[in-house]
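Input (tRNA (Thr-GGU) A37 N-methylase):
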Amino acid sequence: MSITLEPIAHVVGGRSEPSDDFWGGTRAIIRLEPHFDADTLLGIEEFSHLQVLWHFHRASAQDIHLGARHPRNNPVWPSTGTFVHHNHRRPAQVGISHPRLLKVDGLDLHVEDLDAIDGTPVLDLAPWFAEFGPRGEVTQPAWPTEMLSSYWDRPDHP
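Output:
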């Protein structure tokens, strides 16, 4: 089975190159496609954060890696499987982000801390409902915390 998705929006501005770290404070616009009516966003300004599903548009099929590998190719961190990684090497090459919504201007959603680059196709978005967050205690090994220690540092203050 295959699925065809058309972007509902594109990222405008923000960063122009992908990077492993320093996404904090990055501001961009999620611009809905012009065939959408502004009513499709009615009420969204009451939410502080969005959930955004987007496509790694600069990735290629050759980037996909099925199987185990070290995160960021660092042999200090354990080799982990494809579905343990959050990057473009996954089969569907989609990302999920939770940026802060700053304001709505027509079909433009001004956001901060969106870790997608200028031109990124947005496949879907919704306001973040706290009730959809994880239930119960969240656990993880130590390596993601170490690996992502600079992920949300500001680009101008690494």
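Helices lie at 142-147.
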